[in-house]
Amino acid sequence: MDDMYNDPQTYDFKYAGYSKDYALILEWASQMKGKILDLGCGTGRVIIPLALAGYDVEGVDLSEPMLCMAVNKAKQYGMRIKLQPMDVTQLALGFQYSMMYMVGNTFQHVLTNHDQKLLLKGIYQFLDDDGVFIFGTRVPQLHELSQVQRYQEQYKNESMFDVVERHVEEYDPISQILSCRTEKIIRDRDGREMGASHESLQLRYTFPQELILLLAANEFEVLQVYGSWDKEELCQDSKEMVCICKKKSRIH
C-alpha cells in the first residue's frame, strides 16, 4: 500500500473538498434499485453523502486507517455504513450490486495487466446483469510523462503548521507506471522544523484505446465515455477519462 494512505487526516485535509465526481455518481445512483458499492471508498468522501441521501451503499478499501476515519465520520451523522478492508483485485462479497464505482483515480492503483483483469473479473462477478460500473482514470499526458518532474508545494495543515512537499515523479514507458516520491517537511508557527518524512506512490497509466480493449476483453460494454466527470467530450486535451460500463449481454 502506498504511504500516503496511512495518514488519513492529511489525505482528508487535502482532498475532502473535491466533489466534481459526485454529481455523475448521484445521477446514476438515482436510477438504481439495489445495493451500491464504492471500490476504494477511502475516508468516505463520496459514500457518506450517498448514504445521507438514502442510498443503500457499502464500501471496500485496502487501507484500514482510511476506513477507520470513514467509520468515525459516518458516526458523526448517526450512520453505520458497511465498510470492509479488502483489496479490489480480490473481491469476496456476499451480495450482488446494481452499481459499482471507483473515484479518486483508484483505478490507477491497479498496477499490472494481471491485476487489472482480476479487478474486472471480480466486478463482473458481483455486478447485477443490468447493473453499471463507473470509474475514472487520468489520460496519459506524454509531454509531461516523458521527462522527470520536480516541483514543490506549500500549504498549512489542519494544525496551521507550514508544510513543504518536494515531489519527484518519474515515468517508466514500459510498465506505464509513474513513480512518485515526496519529501515532507513540517515547521511550527515559529518556523522551526518539526521533522521530515518520505512518502512514495505508484500510478499506472492506461491509454484510452487500450482501456476500451481491456473492458471489452473482460466482457464489459462501454455505454458512455467522457473527458471529465462534468461529462465533457473526450478529446486530445482531456486530462481524464470517465467510463460508464455494463456487462455484455450473453446469448444463450
Automatic annotation (TrEMBL):
Pfam families: Methyltransf_25. It comes from the Bacteria. This is Methyltransferase domain-containing protein. One of its GO terms (molecular function) is transferase activity. InterPro entries: Methyltransf_25, SAM-dependent_MTases_sf. Residues 36-131 form the Methyltransferase domain. Keywords: Transferase. PANTHER family: TRANS-ACONITATE 2-METHYLTRANSFERASE-RELATED. The keyword Transferase applies.
